[in-house]
Hints:
There is one protein chain. By secondary structure, the chain is an alpha+beta fold. It has one domain (2-147). Helices cover 62% and strands 15% of the residues. The chain has helices spanning 2-24, 57-73, 75-78, 83-106, 127-154, and strands at residues 30-34, 38-45, 109-117, 120-121. Strands 1-2-3-4 form a four-stranded antiparallel beta sheet. Strand 1 and strand 2 (38-45) form a beta hairpin. The longest helix has 28 residues, at 127-154. The chain is globular, with a radius of gyration of 17 Å. 28% of the residues are buried.
Amino acid sequence: xxxxxxxxxxxxxxxxxxxxxxxxxxxxxxxxxxxxxxxxxxxxxxxxxxxxxxxxxxxxxxxxxxxxxxxxxxxxxxxxxxxxxxxxxxxxxxxxxxxxxxxxxxxxxxxxxxxxxxxxxxxxxxxxxxxxxxxxxxxxxxxxxxxxxxxxxxx
Length: 155
């Protein structure tokens, strides 16, 4: 149940925020939220994270389906069976689904969170991207904690 609930929550939040951007902002429009740090920006991304693989949306759709199938089929081998492990998997699955829905219905992904600091600029991203990154980060933290726990038990 945590996998399904987390996935649905991420997809819903992702799609609602993207719909808001599509209906309230012109393409390329930028709204300053925190001066010198954060803007809402309407960006169309036909690639993957950070704009890599631009124009390969059909391949990214196929890759997304493969990743979803692999995460579901091998979930027990990939991640533990605790509540937190299932929650993290649900977060990652929700992120993949959120961007997959955009690619299927729009042919691109809507990005809108735009961070910058002085001359440095981080590529715009969305809720689904953030969920994938947070999920992967939490996955690694869980794996490290489990390894540490196993070492303590063995030693």
